[in-house]
Design goal:
39% of the residues lie in helices and 19% in strands. The protein is an alpha/beta fold. It has 2 domains: 3-115 and 258-338, Periplasmic binding protein-like II (D-Maltodextrin-Binding Protein, domain 2, 3-Layer(aba) Sandwich); 118-249, D-Maltodextrin-Binding Protein, domain 2 (3-Layer(aba) Sandwich).
């Protein structure tokens, strides 16, 4: 998948290109329109982007698809400025300025991509209940809530500072990490635990899977849909009921979110025929988790997994696309068998 920077390359492009960065202002009226989507770093979004790229470039004419790889905060700023077209799989409840940006007309909600999601602090189920088949005794039998973690730092020791426990935070640059760190402080967990940020989603999930395979305790950030939550038996720790006034301060549960497709206000003018597709583009936690599991189990790329998913769940093309475009997409997918 083609990639560009968020701000620097956009600025350079605007300076060097005659006519600036406006849509359709190229000297060559037949030049393809480049659609730019956010890539905030997590696998489910990468897979959703790969599916969208295939559709945009091969079910329609005259478009190219690129992604902007940056933190979710930087990408959101570029989206509201109109430098990025789409945020596919947008966790809008994590964005402090979402409602304001929408009210100001900077962004448009195009549709709901995943109607069911979750995020927060998770532990393996055997930490609470044990696992007789694996010979694991319960380690924290009364652990139910985030605040209960105060009683169990010894269960989750930090190897580098054994007198404290270790909580694995979210990914640096993710908005969820800002909220989770406030939660860590709000509940006074900073007195008992170190908050450890690993550099990427892959590293975070590798630490969880390694601990799980060895039957060791682990507590940290996770979200759904992901391949890891589909593969492992995990428990989301309870928190105070969601309150929109308290959520961004880390004082209650993460909301069960609808993951959306959000566009800049300029996108409908730049690609009017794609708007209908993105309004209908819908997957769901179960479907995308199956795709992510295929990616991990086979070692396929996100693009290869997207191709597999579109072939395996062919009916999606009829739900998302007009008949002519769906058949064009099928013809492209079938042509890959002979390449």
């Amino acid at each position: 998948m083609k990639r560009i920077g968020v701000l620097l390359l956009t600025a350079v492009f605007c300076l060097l290109t005659v006519g600036g960065c406006g849509s359709g202002s190229s000297e060559n009226s037949n030049a393809p329109v480049t659609i730019v989507a956010t890539d905030n770093g997590w696998d489910s979004q990468k897979l959703h982007n790969a599916i969208a790229e295939l559709i945009v470039e091969h079910a329609y004419e005259g478009y190219e698809f690129e992604v902007s790889t940056a933190s979710s905060t930087m990408n959101w700023q570029a989206l509201t400025a109109g430098d990025i077209d789409l945020d596919i799989e947008s966790w809008t409840d994590n964005v402090a300025t979402y409602e304001e940006d929408k009210a100001n007309g900077y962004i448009i909600d195009l549709g709901v991509l995943v109607p069911d999601s979750a995020q927060g602090l998770y532990v393996p189920r055997y930490v609470i209940e044990g696992d007789g088949e694996r010979g694991i005794e319960p380690m924290a039998p009364d652990l139910k809530t985030v605040e209960d973690l105060k009683k169990y730092p010894h269960v989750f020791p930090d190897d580098e500072e054994p007198d404290k426990g270790r909580i694995y935070g979210s990914i640096p640059g993710w908005m969820a990490d800002e909220i989770l760190y406030k939660k860590y402080q709000y509940y006074g967990l900073d007195k008992y635990y170190n908050y450890v940020r690993l550099g990427s989603e892959a590293t975070l999930f590798a630490s969880l899977e390694s601990a799980y395979n060895q039957g060791e305790p682990w507590v940290g950030y996770c979200y759904e849909p992901t391949w890891i939550t589909g593969k492992l038996d995990l428990v989301l720790l309870e928190d105070a009921p969601y309150d929109p006034e308290l959520y961004l301060e880390g004082k209650c549960s993460f909301p069960a979110q609808q993951l959306k497709i959000v566009s800049s206000s300029k996108f409908p003018e730049r690609a009017p025929e794609l708007v209908d597709f993105f309004k209908k583009y819908r997957t769901g936690s179960e479907l995308i988790s199956k795709g992510l599991a295929h990616l991990i189990e086979t070692g396929a790329s996100h693009r290869e997994t997207a191709i597999w998913l579109l072939k395996e769940y062919d009916y999606l093309l009829d739900e998302w696309l007009p008949v002519e475009n769906a058949e064009k997409m099928r013809a492209y997918l079938n042509s890959l068998q002979t390449n």
